[in-house]
Design brief:
Helix 3 packs parallel to helix 5 (137-149). The chain is α/β, with parallel strands linked by helices. The termini are far apart. The chain has one domain: P-loop containing nucleotide triphosphate hydrolases (Rossmann fold, 3-Layer(aba) Sandwich). It contains ten helices and ten strands.
């Protein structure tokens, strides 16, 4: 599945969310959208899903404009938000079964898909009967990823999927997501404010700042040929810890 935006603008009252954004997301590519809070990252994803409508410009999926009723399209796109967005009153199995039940999947097909995704995400099957409140943050994110992948969609959109996790769990899931992305052969668009995470997970980076696209390229291109001082500052925010002796020398 391919996505494209051409001169897309989006405003909320007097606030500019996106200003003349032109971007392409080729099929089976992995792209990270990076930028600070309020830069327009989440709005961009919502435009691709048809959850928001652009004020001007064109949003296309597989070369065609977004349909007037985007709900069938959304069922073909996996979508993961921060903290998972699981329904708290439903068990893990029930959360995973929502779309398959709507599509009237037979039970054997549903169970086979759940088994496949349990293996893919390293989630124990014993958790299927639990409710989201009974899971750790990392487990909830794995379930959210499973739910997004249930219909085997051609595209996967993730909005800060690891943002609320503690550093150790986040590091573990980054490693796992990298393996999953490399093996899926799907179009993946990941939103994150963490430039290190973006560089680790995606070969293509799109940097937004103040509602505008600052630069698009690989890690090497952005690091060696930054198009704007903001790119340099973004990389400089990745703090490197000093040697232990430096800490020991503090008064």
């Amino acid at each position: 599945m391919e996505f494209s935006l051409r001169d897309v603008c989006k405003r909320y009252d007097n606030s500019v969310a996106l200003e003349r954004i032109t971007l392409d997301f080729p099929g089976a590519s992995v792209t990270a959208i990076v930028g600070g809070s309020g830069s327009g990252k989440s709005t961009l994803l919502r435009l691709l899903l048809g959850l928001e409508t652009a004020d001007s410009g064109a949003v296309r999926v597989d070369g065609a404009p977004l349909p007037r009723d985007p709900r069938p399209l959304r069922r073909r796109i996996g979508y993961v938000i921060q903290e998972g967005g699981l329904f708290p009153h439903l068990s893990v199995r029930q959360n995973l079964s929502l779309l398959p039940d709507y599509l009237r999947w037979p039970r054997p097909r549903l169970q086979a898909r759940i088994t496949t995704l349990l293996d893919l995400t390293n989630l124990p099957g014993s958790l299927l009967s639990r409710y989201p409140a009974e899971l750790s943050g990392g487990q909830r994110q794995r379930v959210a990823l499973m739910r997004a992948l249930m219909p085997d969609p051609p595209a996967l959109l993730l909005d800060e999927p690891l943002g609320a996790l503690d550093p150790i769990v986040r590091h573990e899931l980054q490693e796992q997501l990298l393996v999953i992305f490399q093996g899926l052969d799907k179009t993946v668009i990941l939103v994150t404010h963490d430039i290190g995470e973006a560089c680790f997970l995606a070969p293509r980076l799109a940097v937004l700042n103040n509602a505008r696209l600052v630069q698009m390229g690989s890690y090497a291109q952005l690091r060696q040929q930054p198009a704007d001082p903001y790119i340099t500052r973004l990389f400089e925010t990745q703090r490197a810890l000093p040697a232990v002796a430096t800490f020991d020398a503090r008064p």
